């Protein structure tokens, strides 16, 4: 059993979640989509989950192992998309070879004092280190949507060396990769 929180665990959970979604047996056929992640975690970890071993290791609180004080993260934006579901595979239409269609994103209102919004998508599981799939800067703070049909802001070169969205294309044989979408509300101009 992979360690909870590890990449291998996330892959195993994603595959189990897909099986739950596809399974029509009496045990799962009434599992709502929103509860499939919870059901997959329960099946993997059991009824009484044990703590993740790495949570108590020497690096669990910071570089020297000290327990870091968790401060206020400040305003956190709620980010959503109709094209992407947390923990699920990204549709082929959005992949590099399958159409390379950019992802639509929506986010909550930004805090006062925001001068620019930035959208970022990275793949931390790429073989050569974190891969940049998307970087859009200069989005007006009043915007709460990135609609691929009418893009806003400046789309920078991705890891493929092309401007705009560069869809997933993990190497053949790799386990599923994670794609992290982030929206930042900046108090000063982005410096590229």
Automatic annotation (TrEMBL):
<protein>
    <recommendedName>
        <fullName>Phospholipid-binding protein</fullName>
    </recommendedName>
</protein>
<dbReference type="Pfam" id="PF01161">
    <property type="entry name" value="PBP"/>
</dbReference>
<dbReference type="InterPro" id="IPR008914">
    <property type="entry name" value="PEBP"/>
</dbReference>
<dbReference type="InterPro" id="IPR036610">
    <property type="entry name" value="PEBP-like_sf"/>
</dbReference>
<feature type="compositionally biased region" description="Basic and acidic residues">
    <location>
        <begin position="9"/>
        <end position="40"/>
    </location>
</feature>
<feature type="region of interest" description="Disordered">
    <location>
        <begin position="1"/>
        <end position="77"/>
    </location>
</feature>
<dbReference type="InterPro" id="IPR005247">
    <property type="entry name" value="YbhB_YbcL/LppC-like"/>
</dbReference>
<comment type="similarity">
    <text>Belongs to the UPF0098 family.</text>
</comment>
